[in-house]
Amino acid sequence: MTGSTPAPFTADDYRARMERAARSAADAGLAGLLVAPGPDMVWLTGYTPTAVTERLTVLVLAPGQDPVLVVPTLEAPDAERSPAASVLTLRDWTDAKDPYAVTAGLLDERGRLGISDNTWAMHLLGLQRALPGTSYAALTDALPMLRGVKDAAELELLAAAGAAADQTFEEIRKVPFAGRRESDVGHDLADLLRRFGHSQVDFTIVGSGPNGANPHHEVGDRVIRPGDMVVLDFGGLKDGYGSDTTRTVHVGEPTEEERRVHDVVRAAQEAGFRAVRPGVACQEVDRAARAVITDAGYGEYFIHRTGHGIGVTTHEPPYMIEGEEQPMVPGMCFSVEPGVYLPGRFGVRIEDIVTVTGDGGRRLNNTTREMVVVD
Ligand code: ZN
Ligand code: ZN
Ligand code: ZN
Questions:
Q1: Which range among 47-56, 63-72, 206-215 shows the weakest confidence by mean pLDDT?
Q2: Which long-range contacts (C-beta less than 8 Å, at least 24 apart) are formed by 6-13?
C-alpha cells in the first residue's frame, strides 16, 4: 500500500475528479473539502502516503480555488511523483510548523467543511482549533455519491476484479473441503485471489455448518465435515478496484431443506438483480430480494441489507436498503447479496457485483449460482 494506485488514470482524469468534487461541495453548501489519506484521496489524486502517521497530510479542495495537497516536508518527494502532482499545488510543512495553521491559511471561506470519514480525530481536533467558527460534515454524509458513478475505465477495472474473483471460485470448488479447517480454505482463497491479480485481499469468509449462520464469521479452526453447507465470501483489490462475491457450496449431497433454502436465496438474488434499473430507488433492490425470502417464510432470517457499493473500496455508498431513495444511475456498482441464516444450523448467501446499465443491470460475477457440491 505505498505509492500510487496502478489504475490507468491521467492527471487530467484526477483534475476532472477534483473539480467535480469542489463543485459538488459548493452545491451541497460546503465551503470546502478536507480529504485525508485513504480511499477518497486515492480516487481524487492517486496518492497514498507511504505511511499514515500523526503528521498531517490533507488535500484541500474549495470551490474556485486550485487544489492544494498539504504534506510533511519529508514526504514531499513522494507526493511530487504522484499521478496528480502536475494538477495540484503541494504545500509542505516542516516539523517545526503547525500544519493546521498552514491548512487554515488555504481556505478563503470558512463555514461548513466536508471532511473524509477516515480522518484521524487528532487531525480534526487540530483543524477545529485552527479554524474557529467552522463546522464539519462527514464526506460520505455530505456527498454520498461522489465516487458512486463509475466511468468506463473504472467499470473495466471492476469487471476485471470480478472476473478474477470468479476464477478464484472456479479453482476453490475443486479443492478438498471435508477434513480441512476453514482457515485452510481461507488461505487457499487468499492465494488464489493474489494469483489472479489481486494486490490486496480484504476478506476470505469460510463459514461452514453453523458458522455459516453468522454473516460476520470470517474463518475459524472448525474442521469442515461432509454434510456441511459452506458460505464462501471473498474479495479485495485488483489494480486499485474491488471484488466481492459469495457462493455457498455443500460438502457432498445436500438435504432437501438445504436445497430449498439455497433455491430461495438464489431466487431472491435473481429478483434483486432484476430490480436494477436506472431511475429506480436503491431500496427497490432490497425490497425485491427480501420479498422472495419473506414469502418463502424465512424473512426473520435475512438479517442484513441486500447490498453495498464497491469501487476503490469494497464497502461504500450506495447501500441497497429500505429507506435509500437514491435513484440508480448508469455506472453505479454494488453488490446484490441476500442471505438466509438459520442459527446453530447453516447459512446461505449468494452475492454478485452488479453495475447499472442504460436499461437494467449487468453482473460482474458470473459463476454458477446453482448450489455447487464439493468434496
Ligand atoms: Zn448438509
Ligand atoms: Zn461479500
Ligand atoms: Zn458484499
A1: 47-56
A2: 6/239, 6/240, 7/46, 7/153, 7/154, 7/157, 7/239, 7/240, 7/241, 8/153, 9/46, 9/83, 9/153, 10/83, 11/83, 11/84, 11/85, 11/86, 11/87, 12/87, 13/153
